Structures are given as C-alpha cells and as structure tokens.
Amino acid sequence: MTVPPARALRRATPFALAAALTLAALGPAGAASATAACTPSFSVDETGPLVPGETLHLSGTCFAPGQRLAIKMDADSYGQIGADDGEDAPYRTRSRVQVHDDGTFRAEPVVVPRFQPANGVATTAGPHTLHLLDNDPVTSVRATFTVRAEHDATAVVEGEELRISGTGFRDRAGTGGSQVAVLLWSGGEVLTRPAPHAPHADPKFWATGQADANGAFTLTASLPDGGRLGARGSVPAAAGRLEVRVYSGRELTGHARDLTRNLALTSVEVAPAPTLTGDAPRVTGRPSPGGELRASASFAPVAQQLSHQWLRGGTPIAGATAAAYRPVPRDVGARLSVAVTGEAAGHAPTTLTSSEVTVVRGTLVRSARPQVRGVARVGRTLRATRGSWSPAATTRVQWLRDGRPIRGATRLTHRVVAADRGHMLRVRVTASRTGYVTATARSAGVRVTRG
Questions:
Q1: Which of 18, 267, 413, 422 is deepest in the core (most CB within 10 A)?
Q2: Considering only CA atoms, which of 103, 82, 101, 99 is closest in space to residue 91?
Q3: The domain 282-361: what is its CATH number?
Q4: Could you check whether 41-147 and 282-361 share the same CATH topology?
Q5: 401-435 b/e (C-beta count within 10 Å ≥ 16 → b)
Q6: What distance lies between CA 166 and its chain's CA centroid?
Q7: Which CATH class is domain 152-270?
C-alpha cells in the first residue's frame, strides 16, 4: 500500500484526506489514474479578447491548499506582476493568488498591462500567456488569453467641420458598441459648448454618439468658433491646433464619471477661416460736444452683420456701440476712433479701426439776443433778459455805460442814476458750459435822457 506524503496529509482538508486514502486503496495503477485527473490548472474567465488596461479574472483548481502563486505574463517580459510584499518584484501590481483550502481559487483579478515596464513596449494584439508559479510545492502552469488592438480614432478637419472616426470602441462585455464622447482641448484648456448636447448635461462633451456593434463610429462636430474656453471668455476663430480626446463607457453620464477609456489623439491642424477685407472705417461729423460722429465701413465679401465700438485714446467707451457717437465734455482734447467688426458666413470676424480725430470744444449757439427794457431816465429801473442759448448754459450779466462795465451792476435790473444821464446803457451776457467755448452777447443800447 502506498502512503501519502505526510506534508500533503497535514495540509489536506477532510475531503482531500479521504481522496488521498482512496488513492492508497486503489494501488499504484489507480493512484496514477486519479493524479492525472487532478493536475493543477487555471483558466481566464473572460471568453473574448481584452483591451490593455482592462481586468481579466482567473479561476483554478487542483492546487495545494493554502498555496500562494506568483503571476507572470509572457514569461519574464512583464516581470512578476503578482507578488507578496518583500519579494524582489519591481513591477508588482497585486499580491500572489491565494489558494483556498479546497485547492481552488475563483475570479482572481489581474489588470492586463498596457506596456512592458522594463522597456515601455506596448502590449500587442494577439495571444498572451499567464504563468502561475510556486517553489513549494513546485508549480508552473499556464493559460492563454487574447488581446485585441486598443481602440483607435482619427480626426480630420473638413471645411468648417471636425470629423472624428474610431474603431474598437466596444462595451466591456465585448457584445456591442460603446457610447462615445468627444472632448476638445486648446492651449491646455478644455473647450465647452454654449449649449450642451442633450441628454448629457456636461458642456465639455463637444460631440456624442454610439459605436456600432463592431465598435466603429463616425461623428461630425462644428469647429469651436464661438464656443467658450473655460471661464476665460469667447474662443476666437478656430485657427491653430486642437487636441481631440475620445471617451467611452457603458454608461455615459452627465459628468463622465463612469467613462472607462480615454484616448488622446494626435492634435489636428485647423486652417484659419478666411477673413473679410476692407478699408479702414471713415469717421465724419463734428468732433465736439453737441456734434455727432458717424462711422461708415465696407467689407468684401459684404458683411452680414456689423458691430461698432468707439474708442477714447484706444480704450473702449462703455456703451458706445452704435454707428453714431455724440461726443461729451469729457472727450474734449481726447482722440476718438471707432473699431468696426464685420461678420459673414464661412469667414472669421474681421475688425478694422479708423484713424483718430481730436475732439475740440463745442460752440454755444445764441438763439435770442439779450434785451434791455424800461424807460431810460434817472430814477427809473431798467430790466435785462439773458437771451437764449443752446445748449443751456450758465450766464453772467454785466451792465455797460458807453461800453464800459459799471461797477457792481451785475444783476438783471439796473436803477438809472445821475452818472448815467446822457450816456448809452446796454447789458452784456457771458454764457459758459463745460466742454464749450465761452460766448458773449450784448443788447442794443438805450440812451439816458437828460430830463
């Protein structure tokens, strides 16, 4: 009778012990047959090909109870990826596989490496081998699995559209196509759409779609002219380079939290949109307070929309965005210009700026002459009017005797005194307003009688 080794009996479960005793009862021939029927083996649970970076699962049987198995992939190409703490395994990604007391293990996870750590060589499509190893008892078993090419995508600019195509975008089960989302990057910032794609609320999704059953997709999206760049404001015409990233996952949620893959494409060159041409805008009108300046501009091809911005010393004037502008007193002495932006379909917005004009002080216009009313006789009172001015102005009154100021006579009324007898009296009105040239006007004279 053959006696099982003592070590094996110590580690065996009651079920395993009973099996060992049965082998002893069978004799040498029976023992050989039963041993051949229970050789250590394992398999990969996933039946389809896997993508580098995804997780496969291992299940095995007929191992020594309590055994701890090291994991290698393709012999030593990837180093020891399953190792216990303290082992010389620089590329360790998980601990060894722990065998249960019944000699089995189930669904042990292993991440498929994306590249060989020692040299950076990418994991290729095709069959690969996993090895489970141990020195006590000596164990070396293997199983194969298949890697399919990691998803790929390309992006090209066609006119005013961006066309993105991809292959290999299947769901994790490998049974159908995955949902995909396209994100665009420029200058290190993700671009966001003014209006997010429904039903996904995340404005970072520049385009979304569904890969077909084979994992292929093609999406088109407008170039990001007029989109928004983070919180920094409007994106200019889409000239330069865009980085296109394609995300996919089983469930594409609002904020991409469940996306399982991320592919950064080579950036694509975006040709600048053609620009409108034209001469510098012309500014006509009176450059002074009370006057009006008007801008005129023409573009080729004809602009479908014009916008204006008046500038004071090169700085935009708040609210001055019409084709006409009326200078205000604070503009006096400043140099004004106007920037006109033309827009047309298929063209980048083009801005042209006029030459500068210097604003001078305005002119106060007298619409009615001052008058002196009353009887010009000693002891009587004369009354004056200020006249009328446009725009309204502040006025000062001065009575004159034969053209010379009468001291203290600065009111609208003047009592005729003996010194006025035989002389010509009149009133002089001085009008002033900020930003305008000071103006004066005199009334007609009245002669004081001697009687």
A1: 267
A2: 82
A3: 2.60.40.2700
A4: yes
A5: beeeebeebeebebebeeebeebebbbbbebebeb
A6: 24
A7: mainly beta
Predicted confidence (pLDDT) at residue 363 exceeds the cutoff of 60: yes
Spatial CB neighbours of 407, under 8 Å, sequence gap ≥ 6: none
pTM of the model: 0.45
For the chain, domain boundaries = 6-37, 41-147, 152-270, 282-361, 365-447
Q: What is the pLDDT of residue 114?
A: 74
* Second-level CATH architecture of 365-447: Sandwich (2.60)
CA distance 178 to 263: 14
Cα separation, 363 vs 417, in Å, equals: 37
Please answer whether residues 186 and 204 qualify as being in contact, where contact means their C-beta atoms are separated by less than 8 angstroms.
Answer: no
Q: Assign 125 to helix, strand or coil.
A: coil
φ and ψ at residue 293, rounded to 5 degrees: -110, 145
Burial per residue of 351-368, b for 16 or more beta-carbon CB atoms within 10 angstroms, e otherwise: ebbbebbebbbbebebee
Residue 430 · residue 387 · CB < 8 Å:
no
| Amino acid letter for position 168 | G
Tell me which residue of 215, 198, 214, 196 sits closest to 206, measured CA to CA: 196
Residue 20 has pLDDT above 80, yes or no: no
SS3 at position 186: strand
